[in-house]
Specification:
The complex is a heterodimer of chains A (114) and B (112). Chain A is 0% helix and 56% strand. Chain A has strands spanning 4-7, 10-13, 18-25, 31-37, 44-50, 53-57, 64-70, 73-79, 87-94, 104-105, 109-113. In chain A, the strands form 2 sheets. In chain A, strands 2, 4, 5, 6, 9, 10 and 11 form a 7-stranded mixed β-sheet that branches. Chain A has a 4-stranded antiparallel β-sheet with strand order 1-3-8-7, with no helix packed on it. Chain A is globular and about 35 Å long. Chain B is mostly beta strands and 112 residues long. In chain B, strands 2, 4, 5, 9, 10 and 11 form a 6-stranded mixed β-sheet that branches. Chain B is globular and about 40 Å long. Chain B starts with a strand and ends with a strand. The relative contact order of chain B is 0.34. The chains are: A mainly beta (114), B mainly beta (112).
């Protein structure tokens, strides 16, 4: 285990469903991230939170809604998704939002939109 | 925007041979360059990193080199083993260390 736990590991949802992805870190880090990983493409940064405050939204469609209630928990709320949103969603954390400390990733949630 | 190019996209080597993966970056202000290994069903894990004030760093069978002038850095794995088979990602910090931008990944297959 890396210290970053993501649930669920797999999720299949219809385009009209509402679901949430959860990420929890036990590393005492203050920054958390959501990344989207699609086949044969670079990891795409979606959101950055630093000390619970959102510091970056990388032009992500509003059907993805993040929530960070505290520095240890991060959620990604999903609604009315499209099939092209099917991907592996990775959560990561770092001591601060300065990337030079490196990121610790969770194992991801494999999302399939049908 | 800032990006990181990674080559090759796939690499097959015989067990015991060396493997080299190369990346180039565009942001001259980038100062941190980590490498991640992703095994099937897992998230990427940091295996080695290098900062802009260092030209080379080694950790057992893994080494990374950085050429700031040419804006490229490379991962070298010597004496490859089957357990080295995975997807490897390079990354570079952009925005004065604010976030990481990743390459598209290299699938490394080590044949025994």
């Amino acid at each position: 285990e890396t210290g970053v736990t993501q649930t669920p590991r797999h999720l299949v949802m219809g385009m009209t469903n509402k679901k949430s992805l959860k990420c929890e870190q036990h590393l005492g880090h203050n920054a958390m991230y959501w990344y989207k990983q699609s086949a044969k493409k670079p990891l795409e940064l979606m959101f950055v939170y630093n000390f619970k405050e959102q510091t970056e939204n990388n032009s992500v469609p509003s059907r993805f809604s993040p929530e960070c209630p505290n520095s240890s928990h991060l959620f990604l709320h999903l609604h009315t998704l499209q099939p092209e949103d099917s991907a592996l969603y990775l959560c990561a954390s770092s001591p601060t939002a300065d990337s030079s400390y490196g990121y610790t990733f969770g194992s991801g949630t494999r999302l399939t939109v049908v | 925007g800032e990006n990181v190019e990674q080559h090759p996209s796939t690499l097959s080597v015989q067990e015991g041979d060396s493997a080299v993966i190369k990346c180039t970056y565009s942001d001259s202000a980038s100062n941190y360059f980590p490498w991640y290994k992703q095994e099937l069903g897992k998230g990427p894990q940091l295996i080695i990193d290098i900062r802009s004030n260092v030209g080379e760093k080694k950790d057992q069978r893994i080494a990374v080199t950085l050429n700031k002038t040419a804006k490229h850095f490379s991962l070298h794995i010597t004496e490859t083993q089957p357990e080295d088979s995975a997807v490897y990602f390079c990354a570079a910090s952009i925005g004065y260390g604010n976030k990481l931008v990743f390459g598209a990944g290299t699938i490394l297959r080590v044949k025994s």
